[in-house]
Amino acid sequence: MLELILSISGKSGLFKLVSRTNNGLIVECIDSTHKKMPIFGDKKVISLANIAMFTDEEEVPLRQVFKNIQTRQEGKLVEIDPKTASKEELSAFLNEVLPNFDRDRVYPADMKKLILWYNILVENGFADFEEPAEETEEA
Asked: In terms of CATH architecture, what is 2-48?
């Protein structure tokens, strides 16, 4: 599921990949408007499946961090307002869901985005953070 969810530079929120064109992509806003729009090659587009959080040992896929948040929140939205939360509140929250996050390389802006994205996904029914089943070849 996260493979089709995109973050686009210069645009707030998250987008679902609808289609590909010769010049770019057609995406749909993940919000109540469900507005579709073209995205061209001048924008940096990244799938949430390709994002990871730094820890002291290794990088943890965003999918796993979302699962940790979902477990902590019992599937509900995070009540911290990322726009007004202090650095200490954000760090305390992330410490609960990812205790060994790298405090030097994970910035408050990253923590705010994490909470914002999680809430957008849960509010709009994209709360399946399980790893996609890999197809196995039978011999």
From this structure: Roll (2.30)
Residue at 30: amino acid letter: I
At 95-137, the pLDDT tens digits run: 999 999 999 999 999 999 999 999 999 999 998 888 776 644 4
Which tokens sit at 46?
């990244």
Give yes or no for a contact between 40 and 89, defined as CB atoms under 8 angstroms apart: no
Q: Domain 52-123 is in which class?
A: mainly alpha
Q: How many CB atoms lie within 10 A of CB 12?
A: 10
User: Which two tokens mark 139?
Assistant: 């011999």
C-alpha span between 118 and 50 (Å, rounded): 15
